[in-house]
């Protein structure tokens, strides 16, 4: 792809997460077929506590992806009244089950359950969400481990974009908006490991627009609809929109004002159809990787 930076109204390349997730899932499906040839079926256990409608939708998509790819999934939908002790006991059972390679506890959890206690209880080898301090430590150390699905999926998205455009995060100025354990912090660590120079912004960062204007790569994960305006973005930047919001009309939007940003960016991910599908595909990847590592399998080469 060639980009004419002098052109005032050049629309960005769309980072088509749906198509890219298809590529990632096809790769995962090939590995599952190889595992099956060794009589191994990867397994993912998912816990959903309470009735959060968005969580219901996310969990259904994850279970469907397992079904489509041939990952054995077991789903426990627990009432909002579930105690922390009951949830930890369920995780104990899953930790001990040799047929379960990945454990996912959908967040947020109802009040009264300590998220850290739950995250810490999942065995690190089955921590397909990559939230356990052991896996976060490996990530920061630049060592292999299970990495949070959304940031890992974004790195795959950037790699696929790079294959056609030659773009790479190495040497670029990256700005990550948001510092959550689920997105912002692991994203920043991945980009540092990929040799970008990274600024992490949060709710106390002064002059957010000024920080974004300096960036060759913007990752927006603030949870605030259309916060990032096109006028903030440096012409030719790559913009990845993690946010997902449903407006009053039911239409989805992200943390970036797509309609203005697409005329400044060289490439931009849409909402929907951007980061969301990559997150689910990466969860499948993590589950298969956990299976291969835990069961000490060597995949056949062909
Ligand atoms: P989160 O835990 O609420 O974290 C939001 C982060 O943004 C915090 O670090 C917060 O700063 C910062 N922030 C909030 N408002 C800000 C502002 N006005 N200026 C600068 N920083 C601000 O959210 P999250 O879990 O990281 O998720 C972020 C968004 O991504 C949400 O819309 C979520 O639904 C979406 N998401 C999508 C996917 C997907 O697969 N597509 C996956 C995960 C999340 P403080 O730390 O100072 O509070």
Largest pleated sheet: 6 strands, parallel
Evaluate the radius of gyration: 19 Å
* Envelope shape: globular
The average pLDDT is 96
Q: Structural class, please?
A: alpha/beta
Quick one: CATH class of the largest domain?
Alpha Beta
Ends: how far apart? 32 Å
| CATH fold name of the largest domain | Rossmann fold
Assign the CATH architecture of the largest domain: 3-Layer(aba) Sandwich
* Count of beta strands: 11
CATH superfamily of the largest domain: NAD(P)-binding Rossmann-like Domain
Query: What ranges have pLDDT less than 50 throughout 5 or more consecutive residues?
Result: 1-6
- Widest beta sheet: strand line-up: 1-11-8-7-5-6
Give the structure's gist in a few sentences.
The protein contains ten helices and eleven strands. The strands form three sheets. A six-stranded parallel sheet has the order 1-11-8-7-5-6. The chain has a three-stranded parallel sheet with strand order 3-2-4, with helices on both faces. A two-stranded antiparallel sheet has the order 9-10. It starts with 12 loop residues before the first strand and ends in an 8-residue tail after the last helix.
Write the layout of secondary structure elements.
Layout: E1 13-14, H1 17-37, E2 43-49, H2 53-69, E3 72-78, H3 84-96, E4 102-105, H4 115-121, H5 133-140, H6 149-165, E5 173-177, H7 184-193, E6 197-201, H8 208-213, E7 217-220, E8 238-241, E9 245-246, E10 252-253, H9 258-261, E11 267-268, H10 275-294
Parallel strand pairs: 1-11, 2-3, 2-4, 5-6, 5-7, 7-8, 8-11
Antiparallel strand pairs: 9-10
Helix pairs in contact: 1-10, 2-10, 6-7, 6-10
The structure holds NADP nicotinamide-adenine-dinucleotide phosphate.
NADP nicotinamide-adenine-dinucleotide phosphate (NAP) binds next to helix 10.
């Amino acid at each position: 792809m060639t980009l004419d930076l002098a052109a005032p109204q050049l629309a960005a390349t769309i980072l088509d997460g749906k198509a890219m997730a298809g590529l990632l899932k096809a790769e995962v499906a090939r590995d599952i077929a190889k595992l099956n040839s060794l009589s191994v079926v990867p397994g993912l256990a998912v816990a959903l506590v309470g009735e959060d409608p968005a969580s219901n939708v996310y969990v259904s998509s994850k279970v469907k992806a397992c079904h489509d790819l041939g990952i054995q999934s077991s789903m426990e939908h627990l009432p909002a009244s579930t105690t922390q002790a009951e949830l930890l006991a369920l995780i104990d059972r899953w930790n001990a089950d040799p047929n379960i390679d990945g454990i996912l506890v959908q967040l947020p959890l109802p009040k009264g359950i300590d998220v850290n206690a739950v995250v810490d209880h999942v065995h690190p080898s089955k921590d397909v969400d990559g939230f356990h301090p052991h896996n976060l430590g490996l990530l920061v150390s630049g060592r292999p481990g299970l990495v949070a699905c959304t940031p890992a999926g974004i790195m795959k998205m950037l790699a696929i974009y790079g294959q056609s455009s030659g773009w790479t995060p190495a040497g670029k100025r990256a700005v990550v908006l948001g510092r959550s354990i689920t997105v912002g912090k692991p994203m920043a660590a991945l980009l540092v490991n990929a040799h970008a120079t990274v600024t992490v912004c949060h709710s106390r960062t002064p002059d957010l627009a000024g920080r974004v204007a300096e960036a060759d790569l913007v990752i927006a994960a603030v949870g605030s609809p259309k916060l990032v305006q096109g006028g903030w973005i440096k012409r030719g930047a790559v913009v990845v929109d993690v946010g997902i919001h449903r407006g009053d009309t039911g239409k989805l939007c992200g943390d970036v004002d797509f309609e203005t940003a697409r005329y400044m960016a060289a490439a931009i991910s849409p909402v929907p159809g951007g980061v969301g599908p990559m997150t689910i595909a990466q969860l499948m990847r993590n589950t298969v990787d956990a299976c291969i590592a835990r069961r000490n399998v060597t995949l056949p080469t062909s």
